[in-house]
């Protein structure tokens, strides 16, 4: 009988040895960390500073199983059952993936958890403005919507919050604008209070930008005298900067027609482009607000392939219901190029200068111009390329 038992045991050992030899065991740390789930957290409790936590797991398993192991094959968790407000060290528990897998080591073995009572409160929103409007403009009182937001999270953190702030940066704006601004909870000395939920996460800030009385932004119109060499023509005219802000006696400033001219640039006999620093002609009693008394006049001189300058009265379009508009100057110059036959065949109405004010409301605006023209022709320049448009309620 004893011999039979020994034979059976020996046979089992031989079978185990053969099985291991055919499918040996492997061990090591999983290539991925396993996320730790928090379970059984008490009602009304929140984790302070509780970011996502994960653990490294070292396991032993047959090679046939090892290749299929993933982080999702294991369940790591901490059980907060019965824990109240305070700091706790809770053991991390891991459920293994099947009976053939043995967990040898986990790191870390404990998770430090600080529990606090959840709280919320309504907090006023404030916005800080960085930068200033350009010369001749000023910023009016801000409008913030909504004026207050809800702050939620651990009570110890919520209690520290005295305001929620956002930041708005001015970038040379000359008209009232709105922006969606991200907001941040802060304590009484201005430090950010992290780890809280803010609802909503952003507010709309409206920043009024108005003209100062006695200040005005005007287009710069480059004036030329003379004619280029035979076989050449003026293909483009521009000024840099294209506008200048002036100041002076309010009635005098208001009477300026929307642009200032430069002193004449001589193009007589020119065969190449001209770049020249030229002065601006200021009316008596009017001066630049930023000492900009000259501009860089850029005049393109090109061989005659076909070019023509036409003076046109702009067409105002896109006025809203109940609005009327006026603009200055009354006419603009459009430099066209293209086939001579097409230029010579132009008739009244073939070319239009359009002032689109669809996006503008009551007030004074500098509006870019567009040209409707035959497809065969190109626009080389519009002089000036912006018009001052005054929109009023009719």
The structural domain count equals 4
CATH architecture level-2 label of the largest domain: Beta Complex
Mean pLDDT: 85
Distance from first to last alpha carbon: 119 Å
What is the alpha-carbon Rg in Å?
A: 39 Å
What fraction strand?
A: over 45%
* Number of beta-strand segments: 35
CATH fold label of the largest domain? RNA Polymerase Alpha Subunit, Chain A, domain 2
* Count, helices: 5
Global structural class:
mainly beta
- Helix share of residues? 10-25%
CATH class of the largest domain: Mainly Beta
* Gross morphology: elongated
Low-confidence stretches: 14-21
**Main beta sheet strand tally, sense and closure:** 9 strands, mixed
How is the topology of this model organized?
Blueprint (H helix, E strand, L loop, with lengths): L1 H21 L2 E5 L4 E6 L5 E3 L6 E9 H4 L8 E5 L6 E6 L1 E3 L6 E6 L2 E21 L6 E3 L3 E3 L2 E7 H4 L4 E7 L7 E10 L10 E3 L2 E6 L1 E3 L3 E7 L2 E2 L6 E9 L2 E6 L1 H6 L3 E3 L3 E2 L7 E6 L6 E3 L5 E10 L3 E6 L2 E3 L5 E6 L3 E6 L2 H5 L7 E5 L6 E6 L1 E3 L5 E6 L2 E8 L1
Parallel strand pairs: 2-5, 9-13, 18-22, 19-23, 28-31
Antiparallel strand pairs: 1-4, 2-4, 3-9, 4-8, 5-7, 6-9, 9-12, 10-17, 11-16, 12-15, 13-14, 14-16, 18-21, 20-26, 21-25, 24-26, 27-30, 29-35, 30-34, 31-33, 32-35
């Amino acid at each position: 009988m004893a011999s039979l038992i020994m034979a059976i045991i020996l046979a089992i050992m031989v079978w185990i040895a053969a099985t291991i030899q055919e499918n040996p065991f492997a061990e090591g740390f999983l290539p991925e960390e396993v996320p730790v789930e928090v379970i059984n957290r008490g009602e009304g409790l929140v984790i302070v500073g509780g970011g996502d936590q994960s653990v490294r797991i070292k396991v032993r398993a047959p090679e046939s199983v090892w290749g299929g192991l993933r982080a999702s094959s294991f369940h790591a968790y901490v059980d907060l059952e019965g824990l109240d407000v305070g700091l706790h060290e809770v053991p991390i528990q891991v459920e293994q993936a099947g009976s053939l897998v043995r967990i040898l080591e986990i790191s870390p073995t404990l998770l430090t958890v600080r529990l606090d009572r959840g709280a919320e409160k309504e907090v006023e929103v404030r916005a800080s403005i960085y930068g200033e409007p350009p010369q001749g403009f000023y910023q009016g009182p801000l409008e913030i919507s909504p004026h207050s937001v809800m702050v939620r999270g651990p009570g110890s953190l919520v209690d520290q919050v005295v305001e929620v702030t956002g930041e708005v940066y001015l970038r040379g704006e000359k008209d009232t604008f709105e922006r969606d601004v991200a907001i941040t909870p802060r304590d009484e000395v201005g430090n950010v209070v992290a780890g809280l939920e803010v609802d909503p996460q952003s507010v709309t800030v409206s920043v009024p930008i108005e003209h100062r009385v006695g200040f005005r932004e005007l287009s710069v119109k480059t004036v030329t005298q003379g004619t280029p060499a035979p076989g050449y023509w003026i293909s483009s005219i521009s000024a840099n900067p294209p506008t200048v802000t002036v100041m002076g006696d309010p009635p005098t400033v208001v009477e300026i027609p929307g642009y200032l001219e430069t002193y004449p640039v001589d193009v007589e006999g020119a065969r190449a482009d001209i770049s020249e620093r030229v002065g601006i002609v200021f009316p008596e009693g009017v001066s630049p607000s930023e000492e900009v008394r000259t501009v860089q006049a850029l005049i393109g001189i090109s061989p005659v392939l076909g070019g023509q300058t036409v003076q046109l009265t702009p067409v105002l379009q896109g006025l809203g219901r109940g609005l009327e508009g006026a603009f200055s100057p009354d006419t603009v110059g459009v430099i066209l190029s293209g086939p001579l036959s097409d230029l010579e065949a132009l008739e009244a109405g073939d070319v239009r200068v359009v002032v689109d004010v669809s996006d503008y409301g009551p007030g004074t605006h500098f509006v870019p111009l567009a040209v409707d023209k035959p497809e065969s022709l190109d626009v080389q320049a519009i002089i000036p390329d912006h018009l001052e448009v005054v929109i009023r309620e009719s």
